[in-house]
Amino acid sequence: MKIEFKENQKFTQWWVWLILITIGIIPIIGIYKQLILGKQFGDKPMSDLGLIIFSVSVFCLIAMFWFMRLKTEINENEIRINFFPFIKKQVNWTEIKSAEMVDYGFVGGWGIRPWTKHGTVYNMKGNKGLAIELLSGEKFLIGTQKEVELGKIIEKLV
Fewest C-beta atoms under 10 Å: which of 2, 66, 103, 128? Predict the structure, then answer.
């Protein structure tokens, strides 16, 4: 099946990475000070095991942001989204009641946002997306950075 539209998005906002890197430095300093130098880290230090668990948790959070992707593919039969590592969704055009490009504004952040007026929003940045309503009544929105190209494909396929 020929893919009419394809987009891969990831978090590229410099300020998100600045925050994550800053957060990631804290456990590195803590491990160095407490485990290598043998001095307590902070006024009320964690146990060594607690510090290790905290550090692994922080690094897993940073890794999640690094590997997180929103992949959208559209062909003449279906729309597929993969918000790695959280969700994979595939919808046939025969199941779709309406599909339109919208400016959805800021929905309280990026990622997966349930319970909005557009249903669940899947986005990485920006405020433009493809709002879809299924025949079943389910609604969801796929954010895009290629709104003009996606709009033309939707006009062609709907």
Answer: 2
Segment holding 43, helix H or strand E: none
Q: Is the pTM of this model over 0.85?
A: no
Residue holding tokens 């957060």? 23
Tokens of 100: 């339109």
- CA 79 vs. chain centroid, Å, equals 18
Stated as kind and residue range, the H or E segment containing 54 is helix 48-67
Average pLDDT over residues 117-137: 93
Q: Angle CA(142)–CA(70)–CA(153) in degrees, nearest 5?
A: 50
Evaluate whether 59 touches 24 at the Cβ level (below 8 Å).
Answer: yes
Token pair, residue 132, equals 């879809």
Among candidates 119, 124, 81, which has minimal Cα distance to 98?
119
Q: Which residues pair with 18 in a beta bridge?
A: none
Model pLDDT, residue 150: 93
Tokens of 14: 């410099």
The pairing of strands 139-143 and 119-123 is parallel
CA-closest candidate to residue 116, choices 97, 131, 94: 131
